[in-house]
Design goal:
About 70% of the residues lie in helices and about 0% in strands. The protein is mainly alpha-helical. The chain is elongated.
Length: about 220
């Protein structure tokens, strides 16, 4: 298994028990097989969890479809089956599950399991970002910022970085601060730049506090 494949699976497994974008477990949805699968997975009874998730997945339960896809791709509770795992991942993504849409975008971006396509990656990131999935918002912003899988568009990049920053993303906070500082994709606004640098510093960025002080000096020169 490649290093990038392991990274993707690590991202997947963050959500295997129904965790949200910030990694906080959420209660199982109202489906008996899914709920039982969640309990089995929590108890490391992976074979039982896989079979229970499959039952719920076959009834169209999107989170069960996603969790089953993770287990198939990872080989938890049985043999690795990336082909079937991808099929269930697509079903969950087509069913509107934001975390599945984002994860499918990651696979296309990295060329793992599917042929590499930055255009497809951008399309899936956009679907998840529109639903408020923070990591997808960051990824979509980066696609526009770099012109990767989409035309270079600083305005669109700024929009999505700011939305991710509003959800507490450290890196997005720093980048949108820089964009406001220099007027890239947004009207230059040093006060807003200071705000976002300060937020990035609060989230743990070691250089953001220095940048905030630098911009404050521009606002209030001695």
């Amino acid at each position: 298994m490649t290093a990038s494949r392991r990274l993707i699976l690590a991202v997947f497994l963050t959500f295997a028990l129904g965790a949200g974008s910030a990694g906080t477990p959420s209660p199982p949805a109202e489906d008996q097989d899914f709920a039982a699968g969640w309990r089995a997975y929590s108890a490391a009874d992976y074979g039982h969890a896989r079979s229970l998730y499959r039952k719920a997945a076959e009834r169209g339960h999107t989170l069960a479809q996603f969790n089953l896809s993770v287990m198939l791709i990872e080989g938890q509770g049985g043999a690795v089956d990336s082909k079937e795992g991808l099929e269930w991942l697509r079903k969950a993504a087509d069913g509107g599950l934001a975390r599945a849409q984002y994860s499918l975008g990651v696979f296309y971006d990295r060329g793992e399991i599917v042929p590499k396509s930055t255009t497809e990656a951008t399309a899936w990131y956009a679907k998840a970002a529109a639903q408020g999935w923070r990591d997808a918002q960051v990824s979509l912003a980066t696609q526009y910022y770099l012109g990767r899988g989409a035309p270079k568009d600083f305005k669109e990049a700024a929009k999505w970085y700011e939305r991710a920053a509003q959800q507490g993303d450290e890196g997005a906070s720093y980048i949108i601060a820089s964009m406001y500082e220099h007027g890239d994709g947004v009207m230059q606004d040093l006060q807003v730049a200071v705000y976002w640098y300060t937020q990035a510093a609060a989230y743990g960025d070691p250089t953001a506090e220095i940048k905030a002080r630098e911009v404050l000096k521009k606002l209030h020169p001695e």
